[in-house]
Amino acid sequence: MKLTFYNNKDTTNTINKDLTELTTIDINFKQGQNMFTPSLVLTKVNVPPLANYVKLAEKFYFINSTYEYHTEYLIINLIEDVLETYKNDILKSETDVTSKSKIDYNSTVATSTKVTTDIIKSNITLPDAQSIIVQTNGTTDKPINL
Hints:
The protein is mostly beta strands and 146 residues long. It has a domain at 2-90. It has two helices and six strands. It has helices at residues 82-85, 87-91, and strands at residues 2-8, 19-26, 39-43, 53-56, 59-69, 73-80. A six-stranded antiparallel β-sheet has the order 2-1-4-5-6-3. The radius of gyration is 24 Å and the shape is extended. The relative contact order is 0.16. The mean pLDDT is 81.
């Protein structure tokens, strides 16, 4: 399996990142991996110092952290970059983005402590060891009276 190291100059929330390819090596998994957040043990000489991004199995990953393991090895923890991995699907989707939201920690969001409970009767009885809890949260276009 090919592992390609890159230097990424863009932010995490960018599609079509500005990547500079550094090197490609062959690797073999010795055990099962979570492919969303894999951890790799690699020899130090195979890891370029400027690498902060990789491509593995047709997916793109940020190098989240590295730890020295013994004198010759590094443990590299990755986290999938879903924007870059699925960019073709995202870019050809038929959704129009009309604006980009801004983070605002000072704004006041209208909230309500009002709880509405509806009990819906069913003709199905669950075994004593099971239960179902349904919770929904929603918004309304009507003003909330606090």
